[in-house]
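Hi support team,

I submitted a single chain yesterday and got back a structure, but I'm not sure I'm reading the token output correctly. Could someone confirm the output below corresponds to the sequence I sent? I've pasted both exactly as they appear in my results page.

Thanks,
R.
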Amino acid sequence: IAKLERDTFLSLCRRVEGTPVHTGEATISYTISIGVCRRPGDSLEERLKAADRLLYQAKAEGRNRVCAELE
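Hi R., thanks for writing in. Yes, this is the structure output for that exact sequence:
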């Protein structure tokens, strides 16, 4: 299941990248990085801290990245 979840987030990254925003004057392309944590035994605060850490890790690794802890 963890691989399927990770693939779902990677698919979201690709869809966002492939959907530029068209304004009256320009086309804006963008990407996203995602940090996701699913650790059922942890408190919400612990999971949010982990997801935040994973988001910054994903951003440090480059564009369109997903870093996850899926237990």
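A quick pointer for reading it: The chain has a mean pLDDT of 93. Let us know if anything else looks off.

Best,
Support desk
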